Amino acid sequence: MSATGVAAAACAGGAAWLMAATGRGLRRARPVLAGAGEVTAGDAAWRRAMARATGRVRHEWWALAGGAVVALLGESVVPLVLGAAGVPLIRRVRRAREARLEGERRAAAVIALCGALAGEVRAGRQPGEALRVAGAAGAGLGAARAGVLAAARFGGDVPGALEEAAREPGAQGLLGLAACWRVAVDRGAGLAAGLERLEGALRAERDQRADLRAQLAGARSTAVMLAGLPVLGLLMGSALGAAPLRVLLHTGAGLGCLAAGGVLEGAGVWWALRVVRGAEER
Questions:
Q1: What is the protein's membrane topology class (predicted)?
Q2: Between vectors from CA 1 to CA 20 and to CA 249, what angle results, nearest 5°?
């Protein structure tokens, strides 16, 4: 890459940083301007439209945009093809992360539901009525909550509805709630005491999982940082005038090194993240 290409990349990065900083400044100034009556309805509508347009751009499409930029700077179609190939991979990672966050929200909703239900039973309500009142605490369960509340309202099979809802990722704690419900109804045992013990166990499990994830965050960050070192090497080579992009994209040896390096890089990142995920699962 020539000095002009390096300068263009630096200017593009600086412009992106300035746009982000300007956006943050506008968000901070919004309450002040709103209080002073200086924000017009048209400006507010424009900002909402920009926010919606930005929100529709998924993270995976930035790989294609980055590949297009590198393709222009390196005068080769190879980076564009690699960026397009990275779109489904990044989409898969994003969806897995969204599924994990959704599971965590369901797990938190189960804990909240157990605590609220135990409190209502302690207050003297019958189990069915207590479940209807405490149902708002389980809003994070989503559509599964409707079936449970319907069973409680119309005298249906509440444990069966809880077991059906427990099939959703993150809602496995509802199996314990179903067991407590059956024991309380069939044998007359104290429902509140069982729910309190169940809530404590679920909360301890969640805290343990969060502590483990925090301990493994350093290893995950290190793997990602090491994966980004080749990019730093390309930037340093460009700054020194070695034109690494031209060598990699326009010579046979460079293309071979690019293919081998990409395979080894991907295998290394996959293995490191697999080790981290294995530790989390255990």
A1: Multi-pass membrane protein
A2: 110
Instruction: State how far the alpha carbon of 77 is from the alpha carbons of 25, 28, 64, 68, 199, in Å.
Output: 38, 41, 12, 8, 56
204 pLDDT higher than 90: yes
CB 75: neighbour CB atoms within 10 A?
12
| Distance from C-alpha of 268 to C-alpha of 262, rounded to nearest angstrom | 10
What is the greatest pairwise CA distance in the chain? 81
Distances (CA, A) of 165 to 99, 109, 200, 264: 16, 12, 21, 43
Residue 28 has pLDDT above 80, yes or no: no
Residue 68 has pLDDT above 90, yes or no: no
- The string of DSSP letters for 179-220 reads HHHHHHHHH---HHHHHHHHHHHHHHHHHHHHHHHHHHHHHH
Q: With contact defined as beta carbons under 8 Å apart, do 192 and 116 qualify?
A: no
pLDDT in tens, 210-228: 888 888 888 888 888 888 8
Q: 158 by DSSP, 3-state: which? A: helix
CA 103/CA 99 separation, integer angstroms:
6
Separation between Cα atoms, residue 214 and residue 147, nearest integer Å: 35
Residue-wise DSSP of 13-63: HHHHHHHHHHHHHHHHHHHHHHHHT---HHHHHHHHHHHHHHHHS-TTHHH
